[in-house]
Specification:
alpha/beta; seven-stranded parallel sheet; three-stranded mixed sheet; globular
Length: about 350
């Protein structure tokens, strides 16, 4: 499929990862992109300003729960690949109000699967053979690595390495968000098994980089530090996450969509396990260097009550995608974090456009 000029429909393309994927496709390939996004609080078309004038890019304001509108856009644009990123994704918001997560992540995925299946069945033989449904998910569906070590029986543990999430790790979601994403993953697998819908799933670790909505840890800390506000850390800050630079993730996603094996799952990680407190201190050190103001930015750190059901550690084994598709992250955490801090320092217009929306 790499030599064809394809039509790729991206759901949630105005979000953080979706916009990075679209920018990559338009800048680095010859493929067409149809972006559908309902433009919720985290969707921002300013993130696509640099490529919006391309004749290979189209935007449609559509909610993935709206079956009739999905049906129309499929018929009008005739996509070869669906890359499904549209999702509610913030754990804290899911704890405060889980209903939107059930609606978008589960019902929305169901609607998209059914419309994709109907569209796929209508295609001529060659187009039907090329069609793919790529579902983008999270490592949070696997739950807490420590919890799995302690609570799963010995037979389950022996099936995979308990120190890293593999594609065979049993699901053990902890939050309404991760449970809703786990459910959507199961729906995709069921539609592949039952209806033979040609699908692929990817599960990624924590993303960071330019254009990330400032409710997430890294942009929140950068922007709070710039404004000399407190830098909130849940509990001790010893929670461990694997960090993946968003542009590395975008490269991986397109490679999976084009070259991945139907019916398979691929874990995508950055090989950067860091404690949250160390991430925050690293940001502070970069800001101390770039914009010193008399006292270290780390003096703004404030430990707050821990999140309900907070998982202690996520860590991805990305050896499968490296071995089978020859993908590896280009950025180390140090290089990616510095690029991210510099981007936020130099893009005040984008930040202003975000704060104009409801946070």
């Amino acid at each position: 499929m790499n030599n064809e000029q394809l039509k790729i429909l991206v759901t949630g393309g105005a979000g953080f990862i979706g916009s990075a994927l679209i920018r990559y496709i338009i800048r680095e390939t010859k493929h067409f992109v149809i972006n559908i996004d309902k433009l919720s609080y985290a969707g921002n078309l300013e993130s696509l300003r640099d490529i919006e004038s391309s004749d290979r890019y189209t935007f449609k304001k559509i909610d993935i729960c709206n079956a009739s509108q999905i049906n129309v856009v499929f018929k009008d644009t005739e996509p070869n690949i669906i890359m499904h990123l549209a999702a509610e994704s913030h754990v804290d918001r899911s704890i405060d109000g889980p209903k939107d997560f059930i609606t978008t992540n589960i019902n929305g995925t169901f609607t998209l699967l059914e419309e994709s299946r109907s569209y796929w069945l209508s295609l001529a033989k060659e187009k039907k053979k090329r069609f793919r449904f790529h579902h983008i998910s999270t490592d949070e569906v696997y739950g807490d690595l420590k919890l799995q070590k302690e609570d799963l029986d010995e037979n389950s543990i022996s099936d995979y390495s308990p120190s890293l999430f593999t594609e065979e790790t049993p699901y053990y979601p902890s939050s309404p968000y991760s449970a809703s994403k786990a459910a959507s993953d199961h729906l995709v697998r069921a539609w592949h098994k039952t209806y033979e819908l040609p699908s692929i799933i990817t599960n990624c670790s924590n993303n960071y980089g330019p254009y990330q909505f400032p409710e997430k840890l890294i942009p929140l800390i950068i922007l709070n530090a710039l404004n000399r506000k407190s830098l909130p850390i849940y509990g001790s800050g010893n929670q461990v996450r694997d960090w993946l630079y968003v542009e590395d993730h975008a490269r991986a996603l397109l490679k999976v969509a084009l070259e991945g094996k139907i019916g398979e799952t691929y874990n995508i990680g950055g090989h950067n396990e860091k404690r949250n407190i160390d991430v925050v201190n690293s940001i502070c050190e970069i800001l101390d260097e770039l914009i010193p103001d008399g006292r270290p930015h780390s003096s703004l750190i404030e430990h707050v009550n821990d999140r309900q059901g907070h998982d202690e550690r996520y860590a991805i084994d990305a050896s499968k995608i490296e071995r089978e598709l020859d993908w590896r992250p280009a950025e180390t955490f140090e290089t990616g974090l510095r690029k991210t801090v510099l981007w936020y320092l130099n893009n005040t217009n984008w930040i202003s456009s975000v704060y104009e929306k409801d946070l």
